[in-house]
Input
Amino acid sequence: MLSCARMRQVWRRERAGAQAGASQLSAGGAGKHQPRGAVRLRRRVTALVAPEGPARPRLRRFGASVVFFGLVGGNIVVIVWIWVANHNLPFLSTADAITRIGALTGLLAAYLALVQVLLLARLRRSSG
Output
């Protein structure tokens, strides 16, 4: 990977070469060919100059993970809300509290196991 200063230096060299080539064309040097190195340099500079290339997949991946964790967190909140709405919050005894908290833990564990299976299915599809 080249540093920014090196990329600018290569870009300036390419731009100066293009301006010199344009002046040769206007001076009557239309039949001359460019050296092979100039073509390779132009391709390399074009590939290095585009700054939005590597940043976009990173941004897309970050956006996808924000959406994913938002959905998972939202579903956990909905599961707990449904559990509370079924009048499971008032505990009558210690045994009742342990049983109801165990039921909530089971609901959340089943949901997270489903999320894990979905993530594993995605992993197999992308590697195959």
Residues 54-127 form one domain. The chain has a mean pLDDT of 77.
